[in-house]
Amino acid sequence: MPTAYKRILVKLSGEALMGDDAYGINSATLARIVAEIGAVAQLGVEIGVVIGGGNIFRGIAGTATGMERATADYMGMLATVMNAMALADAMRQAGVNSRVQSALNIEQVVEPYIRGKAIRYLEEGKVVIFAAGTGNPFFTTDTAAALRGSEIGAEIVLKATKVDGVYTADPKKDPAATRYAKISFDEAINRNLKVMDATALALCRDQKLPINVFSILKPGALKRVVQGEEEGTMVHC
Fold first, then answer.
1. Which of 18, 31, 49, 145 is the most buried (most CB within 10 A)?
2. Structural domain contains residue 220
3. Residue 158: enclosing H or E segment and its boundaries?
4. Closest-CA residue to 222 (of 38, 83, 60, 18)
5. Structural domains counted in the chain
6. What are the Cα distances from residue 10, in Å, to 55, 63, 84, 116, 186?
7. What is the domain range of residue 158?
8. Is residue 232 within 8 Å of residue 164, measured between CB atoms?
9. In-domain check, residue 50
């Protein structure tokens, strides 16, 4: 079956790696996520991944304990590097060829982010995992996903979360909440629907880069999105 997209950017939250654990990386969950990504790679789709670090350390949470925001954010970026390394190792074990590039310079551990090199890797069929966010404090990994997606010429940003789309309200708190199949960027921003942070949403809107929010915990969901089937919530211009 043909795919709807040739090149995609997957935004994977750190929390998605926890599975049912309270923190850290659940190996079975990691292996299953890698299998989902590998299945899409086998279709010939070029895949970039921006990974969060909330399962290890979240910068904004650090500030709540009195830590300076910039320091907390840098710690959060290092957490994403740890997740990226774990993801790459799981891909290696599964036979999925990948490379990690970091916005922070840690050359003894991972490659630095170089746009041209990342695009070459994608063209060679390698999954490129982008770590350390944008490399700057005060910016989320959502913004990093919008930025990297725009830089590599992705056709869509796929936000892989624990929830199967964008709802009118928090479905855990409001049983009457309903899921949007499609919604515009302006509606999402005006209704403060927490699709992504406002900076990421504005960047995607300006670059006419659609976002699909779906559950990575739902078997086959990533593949269905890539094949153009209705899955999750599409945020569009």
1. 145
2. yes
3. strand 156-161
4. 38
5. 1
6. 17, 27, 13, 19, 22
7. 7-236
8. yes
9. yes
